[in-house]
Design a protein that fits this description.
Layout (H helix, E strand, L loop, with lengths): L5 E3 L2 E3 L3 E3 L9 H9 L5 E5 L18 E5 L6 H13 L5 E4 L2 E3 L4 E2 L1 H13 L3 E6 L3 H10 L3 E4 L13 H5 L10 E3 L5 H9 L4 E4 L1 H4 L4 H20 L3
Parallel strand pairs: 3-4, 3-12, 4-5, 6-9, 9-10, 11-12
Antiparallel strand pairs: 1-2, 7-8
Helix pairs in contact: 2-3, 3-4, 6-8
C-alpha cells in the first residue's frame, strides 16, 4: 500500500490531526506534548491575537512542528489582513488559517468576507486554509480564490456536538483538489472517526483533549479514531 499522507499547500504531513488553539487561544505544556507524542500531531495552530502571551504554543512545541497562525478573534476583513501581516513580520511563515467570526453568540464565520480575505492573502503569497460554514457554492468560491485547504465547521466551536453539518460536508467530498479538514465541534473520537469515514482529509480539534481527565489516553483515542475512519473510507474506494 502506498504511503497515505496529507498534502497541504505543498507540505506533506503523516498526521491528519491538527491541534486547534480552541476558543481561548491558550495551550498548556501538557496539552502540547500529549498532542504531539500521543496523538501524533504535526501541525499546531497559533492564535495571532494571543501572540505575545506565554501560553500561545510557540515556546512549548518542539522543533519540527508546523505552526498554523490563525486569525482567531478577527471580526472584519481588515482585522484578518492586519493579523496576517503580523504573522509574516514575526517569521511564522506563509501558512495562515482565516477565520472571521460574524456572529458573536454562536461564533459562526462570515463566509463572504472569508472568500475575499482568501483571495487577497493568496495574491500576497500566503497559503490560506479557510474556515467557513459549509456551503457548496461557497466552497467552490474559496477554492477559486486560492485556498490550499477548506475547513467546514461540524457544529459550533467548543460545542462537542459533532457532525451536525454532515450532509453538507459529505456533498463536498471528491469535488475539489484541496483537502477538506473538519473544524469546530468535534468533541469525541467517534465523531472524528465519522468525519474521516465519509471522506474528510483531516480533523482539527482542541476541546476534547483539553478537557479530558486522562489527556494522553484521549489523545491516543483520537489518533486511533482518525486512522480507523481513514482506513474505512479508503476500503470503499
Amino acid at each position: 500500500m502506498e504511503r497515505d499522507t496529507l498534502m497541504i499547500g505543498g507540505v506533506e504531513f503523516n498526521s491528519r490531526f491538527i491541534l486547534s488553539s480552541g476558543k481561548t487561544g491558550h495551550y498548556t505544556n501538557e496539552l502540547i506534548h500529549s498532542a504531539i507524542d500521543d496523538a501524533g500531531v504535526e501541525m499546531i495552530s497559533v492564535a495571532l491575537s494571543h501572540l505575545n502571551e506565554e501560553d500561545n504554543g510557540l515556546k512549548q512545541a518542539p522543533e519540527g512542528i508546523k505552526f498554523l497562525p490563525t486569525t482567531l478573534g478577527a471580526r472584519t476583513l481588515d482585522d484578518v489582513i492586519k493579523m496576517a501581516h503580523l504573522s509574516k513580520d514575526r517569521g511564522l511563515g506563509n501558512f495562515i488559517k482565516v477565520e472571521i467570526l460574524h456572529d458573536l453568540k454562536y461564533e459562526l464565520p462570515d463566509n463572504d468576507a472569508t472568500v475575499e480575505a482568501t483571495r487577497i492573502l493568496t495574491e500576497e503569497g500566503f497559503k490560506v486554509l479557510s474556515y467557513f460554514y459549509p456551503d457548496m457554492v461557497l466552497a467552490e468560491e474559496l477554492v477559486k480564490a486560492g485556498a490550499v485547504a477548506i475547513m467546514p465547521l461540524a457544529s459550533p466551536s467548543g460545542s462537542s456536538k459533532g457532525l451536525q453539518t454532515r450532509d453538507f460536508i459529505a456533498a463536498m467530498i471528491g469535488r475539489f483538489d484541496v483537502p477538506i479538514i473538519v473544524d469546530a465541534g468535534i468533541g469525541r473520537p467517534s465523531q472524528a472517526c465519522e468525519a474521516m469515514e465519509i471522506g474528510c482529509d483531516g480533523i482539527m480539534a482542541n476541546t476534547a483533549l483539553a478537557t479530558a481527565d486522562n489527556l494522553p489516553m484521549m489523545a491516543k483515542a483520537f489518533r486511533n479514531a482518525i486512522d480507523a475512519g481513514r482506513l474505512a473510507y479508503l476500503s470503499r474506494k
